[in-house]
Amino acid sequence: MSTPLIELYDLTKYFDVAKGKRLHAVDGVTMTINKGETMGIVGESGCGKSTLGRTVMKLHEPTSGKIIYDGVDITHYKKRQMKVIRPKLQMIFQDPYSSINPRMCVQDLIAEPMIVNKMYKSKIEVYDKVSELMDTVGLAQRLTGAYPHELDGGRRQRIGVARALSLNPEFIVCDEPVSALDVSIQAQILNLLMDLQEERNLTYMFITHNMSVVKHISNEILVMYMGTCVEKCSSDELFANPMHPYTKALLSAIPVPSIESKDKKIKAIKGEVTSPINPKPGCRFANRCPLATEECTGADVPFEEIAPDHFVACCKIK
Amino acid sequence: MSEKLLEVKDLEIIYKTDLETVQAVNGISFELNKGETVGLVGETGAGKTTTALAILRLLPERNARVLKGEIDFDGKNLFDLTDKEMQKIRGEKISMIFQDPMTALNPVMSVGDQIAESLQLHNDNNETKAEIEKRVEESLEMVGIPASRKKEYPHQFSGGMKQRVVIAIALACNPSLLIADEPTTALDVTIQAQVLTMMTDLKEKLGTAMIMITHDLGIIAETCDNVGVIYAGEIIEYGTLEDIFTGENHHPYTEGLFGSIPNIEKNERRLHPIEGLMPDPTDLPKGCSFSPRCPKCMDICKEVNPCSFEDGKHRIKCHLFDGFEGFTAADKEVE
After folding, report:
1. Fewest CB atoms within 10 A around its CB: which of A16, A37, B245, B293?
2. Residue ranges of chain A whose pLDDT lies below 50
3. Do A257 and B246 touch (CB under 8 A)?
């Protein structure tokens, strides 16, 4: 039986942008991530997926709601308390070009988290661990003294993975870890992440805008639109039986690399994402939705379990 | 039979700096007929954009050198033209859509003026200001932007809308060739779908030929007639969409590229990436440039750069197809 590791209840993060104006970045996200599983978060830019990841890590203070890690409510943990459990919660960042210090060599970059958290007493132990980690993520030992500018994007991202792993975490938020990489390198990193998960029973929250990547790596998928949950279910179910009109639009918009797709041409939905500042109540997708009626714009739409383990927020689907 | 519009023959381009020489393009050849779309697909640094810039003769003069090759457009070799003649072609006959709409537009000029700019520069029929204004409005409407927004500035538009403006500028003079360099890479998928649908519709309506440069095989499948797969400055496989996406005979790199993308329609747990990295373009390996990463590498691959082997339109640059059924050697072997 799977046990939950991370539980979120009605998690909300608003940013004050100007007097009386609030940007609803994350609006009422409820979900559970089980140990050893991967939760994929998908959505377009600006839908709040990165903010969600950062809020779970408590890099942003949540506006309201609850974050429970391993049965303990960490929502109101102070900085000092967070420091104790941070090693268990790590993050891999999107851009391997800007997320690592260009003036530190590979060895120091990987050692840094261990030194900051005083994991080992002697330097020798730290550097032993560094070379072990370099093997794990597939960085050649000859690169120990290399600086980031000498490395390509794939290797830099491996440093990011090694840094996240250095503290033996249980939970890793991967924020678009492969979107800055070329396809052949992207596949190498995805394989690495999946191997590590199997070996170490890691739990991932995998944030991406790439539907095919998310399908490949996730057990469960949450689709977000303008800060709200739109649909959540198992990965296979989402692709076999998408229910929410936005999910359908998202899926049909992906160009598929096979020749049969030429006949079933991509269907584009009209319109664009509106501003998330002080949004009106009601379904936020309504202005682009082909099914929308007056019913959709009046009150907020509940996120309901339509089929077993299949949650959808749409009043047109019953 | 459709008419030939563009032919790139054995193009070789290097970038020279004081310290090193980057071999960006090493003998690319392809053709394009009127109204057709050819896709160039490859990874970062494969030489896709350099090829595109060479067609427009926009390579940085300071360090780029064209060593060899011809680009025939409408029967003329573009390298023989004077700068003045080239200016007539740029924007009017051949135009380009750049990758990043955020930086391709001038932030202090209204979008209407930016479209009008190219119309005024190529104003052969001595159109009056009012006529040009009218054409600006038509171009905006054509890409799905209300003409009333022509007085607005780029920052007032979203990313997808900006890319529409860029497309409107590119198509304003009705060019016969449009080069799209990663036109949707900076956009979200639903917006990407809108822009791609619009581009294919406009292409059909106006009869423009297009070179689609992308790293996304999905976009290629969606838009192109012919495809060239580029690796380290060479077209290692070329053919019709069917040749590339179906059948058994492929260059090992093409196979690797397909193995690397998680396919939505298949359920596979592990991907099959290509081991290793792109070769350093300042120091290309001897023989076939893919040989260090190739799972099917033979002794000959490390010594001799293969020539192309052809089966009709399908062209593969790999020793595996030497003497292969249906394939014949296209040209003499090159060192």
Report:
1. A16
2. none
3. no
